[in-house]
């Protein structure tokens, strides 16, 4: 038995040795490196809901093959960006990153991406619109209000009751137009009084709004979750907010999102059922066309480069792995592709 | 002269039920059936090596009635692990998740201190583990998986982990395996009214208060067992917030919980061969759902409550067989509230179960019968109904299944089992399911091997959830095989004993169901991939007694187990899918546990060290959460005499105060303590 006992201890040592050899490979610490995030494209990778893996990538225009990943972690000494990065707005040489499920706005200085401040205390923020050095509006999923942020102090200074989920917003003709998901309305807010002055009936669940070269506002409506078919509407601010239903798409279960416009304000783009569709603002109703067909994955993000007109499409695949950015020329010709973080959801062009 | 046996509570490491010995050996002197060898097998606290311990027969006499409660037979060639009584004793006031996270090849995903916990056996998914209580399936009617945070261990007497195919003997769909929980009657031994009590009270860190009570009472005809468990915790533990500059220490918020469990059973018998059992289990768990490190507190709440009732008639059929017929009804509610989002959802499920089994009840004797033997047959019908936000009008599903088996014994060194199962559901007939197991014994070596086929039906949510449910889903198909070699030096009772075990398995799941985004506005489940799982499991256990083996003034046990699990996507519709060849998310490749137990007279000490390797959190394995090691120590001393016993216990969890996360960005408690007082009383 003594001999066996010796065997036992020998085996024990061997097993522990084996375990130590097959130990986990820890992520090497990411050293803060000086970077120059300008003249490029920020890719806002949402990350998974409750996954805490939101990230920010940056594609350099000057170096076509160069993309930096996780730039917030790199610049902050390995601190994570947060849970579900929703949007990024550049203002006053800073990137204002709205982190939806973290209930905060991370503000980093550009071009270095060092942290400037955090706007906290938000409920479920979505998009920012800057109105002045001391005022910005932030839409919200759950707050039933639009938050008013003072960019100079990174503080919340008020709110505008809206009732329900507010999404994309735009400043046009001195008024702020806000799409209100969960309803069929676009809210009109007077930024001088912070009061809702009007609500415009459009289609079910408006999720995107842009202004064309003619000063007309275009609103894309998702139709809700299987409620009605998606639709596209045009609002004429000069004609007492008259609404024209331009398009009603075919399928009730279809997905329509990410309404964008070309740099000259002449052509509308959006995602529909995994394809990129377009419509010239002056075209006849019913002439929308597939511009870029789906590539087998899940087109989730769409952006138009205001400098070149290039079309950026983000593919989220199955939403639980890194995505890909596909870049097309303004003419719709495939140009190149880049890996991104998890769920590339928005692009912001610098 | 008949000797009055003591009333003992299973799972208690006290003088009333000695740790690691045949505490009920004396029962053999009082059996009216004259099978002393049988009662000698009644182990209340076996210390078997994982994968090597034999099935034992639980025999209980109530007056003149001998009640057999055989632990479910996993057949020859299968690997199972009966949680030993010391483990059950340490976790008796906790839930299944706490216990199972210390078991080999089981990974429990815990969503924070008060969140739900789901198991995964051998690299499979959470829905691939079947959980049974007295042969009755507990998996969620709508989700198909089991939340381990709902089960209080003080409610059950035995917990057995069955890996892989041998679970087919009890139920289909356990592609990873099954967890079998049992309650059983106590042994009274004579015709007098008899009773016993067990009460526990524990206080611990972070506002934890837990209590439990078991009362057993009755006579020759009727026996009642009452089990109560209740507790609460604030779970406001401090942790370093690694998402903030400087990693400031903060406290967990919105993680409190309150739980209550009650199980009342009655066993009634008035002939020498039959008895009737009835039981009702009520549970109620109300908990706050904690935010992650990167989210704000939203005040989310979840309230689980339910009633599980059964009625069982059991009759001994001749010398070898037993017939039992069980009817059961479960009603369960799950309410969820998200005040910030103004969400309130209420789900209600009902399950009706009919279960008839005719089986051999004396497994060990049966194992010694040479030749081909019929093992028995069981028939099961489950009718499930569910109503929730996804299908407010309700949906239902009926599943009928039948299983049978044969065993073959050639001398003492070759044994084999064949188990077959056929199921019929709303989706039609299943393929013929089954496994062939074999056990070869040669000198000190024992080789076990099995292989076969299993499958799993889509859940009600998979089929009918609106929007997204996919009625066209196919069942998941599973082929698997495994082999394990055991080597033992020394025998039971020797001053020293060493057991070595090394095994491997292969598991393939086709038509794996995954909820994926399509080009519609919502996600849908699809049969999107094939998953291949292969792994290695090894264990070393050393037992030693003091110089006086009979008195066993001291006893030492050391056990080390290591598991390697590689669970990868092997085929997808998209050939360029980056998840191909990658490890499934939250499936650790490496896990290990080391346990040292020391018992000296009335003192006992146990140290458990566990290591869980890093786990990937994305399908392309681009992100991972770091591995961790934890140490838990538990010590106690018993005081008392023949009729009553007092045990004082204390323990430290996460002894080394490790900052770790089981799920990414969900902090877990650092070092915490508990102090527990346990009182046992028996009339005899």
If you had to describe this structure to a student in words, what would you say it looks like?
The complex is a heterodimer of chains A (350) and B (684). With 350 residues, chain A is mostly beta strands. Chain A has helices spanning 2-21, 71-76; strands spanning 40-45, 55-60, 67-68, 85-91, 94-99, 104-109, 115-119, 125-132, 135-140, 145-150, 155-161, 165-172, 175-181, 185-190, 195-201, 206-211, 217-221, 231-236, 242-248, 256-261, 267-272, 275-280, 289-292, 299-304, 311-315, 322-328, 334-342, 344-349. Chain B contains 5 helices and 36 strands. Chain B is globular. Classes of the chains: A mainly beta (350), B mainly beta (684).
Any key phrases for this structure?
heterodimer; A: 350 residues; mainly beta; 4-stranded antiparallel β-sheet; 7% helix; globular; disordered N terminus; B: 684 residues; 22-stranded antiparallel beta barrel; 5-stranded mixed β-sheet; 36 strands; 4% helix; 54% strand
How would you concisely characterize the structure shown here?
The complex is a heterodimer of chains A (350) and B (684). Chain A has 350 residues and is mainly β.
Task: Give a short account of the largest sheet of chain A.
Answer: 4 strands, antiparallel
Q: Shape of chain B from CA axes?
A: globular
Oligomer: heterodimer
Q: Which residues of chain A form runs of ≥5 with pLDDT under 50?
A: 1-5, 11-26, 30-34
Order of helix and strand elements from N to C terminus of chain A: HEEEHEEEEEEEEEEEEEEEEEEEEEEEEE
% residues in beta strands of chain B: over 45%
Layout of secondary structure:
The complex is a heterodimer of chains A (350) and B (684).
Chain A lengths: L1 H20 L18 E6 L9 E6 L6 E2 L2 H6 L8 E7 L2 E6 L4 E6 L5 E5 L5 E8 L2 E6 L4 E6 L4 E7 L3 E8 L2 E7 L3 E6 L4 E7 L4 E6 L5 E5 L9 E6 L5 E7 L7 E6 L5 E6 L2 E6 L8 E4 L6 E6 L6 E5 L6 E7 L5 E9 L1 E6 L1
Antiparallel strand pairs in A: 1-2, 1-28, 2-3, 4-5, 5-6, 6-7, 8-9, 9-10, 10-11, 12-13, 13-14, 14-15, 16-17, 17-18, 18-19, 20-21, 21-22, 22-23, 24-25, 25-26, 26-27
Chain B lengths: L35 H4 L19 E4 L2 E4 L10 E4 L2 H6 L5 H5 L5 E5 L6 E5 L7 E5 L2 E2 L20 E6 L13 E6 L11 E11 L3 E11 L3 E12 L4 E3 L8 E3 L5 E12 L5 E15 L12 E17 L3 E18 L4 E18 L2 H6 L2 E18 L2 E20 L3 E12 L2 E2 L3 E10 L2 E12 L3 H5 L11 E14 L6 E22 L5 E23 L8 E18 L18 E11 L2 E10 L2 E2 L7 E2 L2 E13 L3 E10 L18 E11 L2
Parallel strand pairs in B: 6-9
Antiparallel strand pairs in B: 1-2, 3-8, 4-5, 6-7, 8-9, 10-11, 10-36, 11-12, 12-15, 13-14, 15-16, 16-17, 17-18, 18-19, 19-20, 20-21, 21-22, 22-23, 22-24, 24-25, 25-26, 26-27, 27-28, 28-29, 29-30, 30-31, 31-34, 32-33, 34-35, 35-36
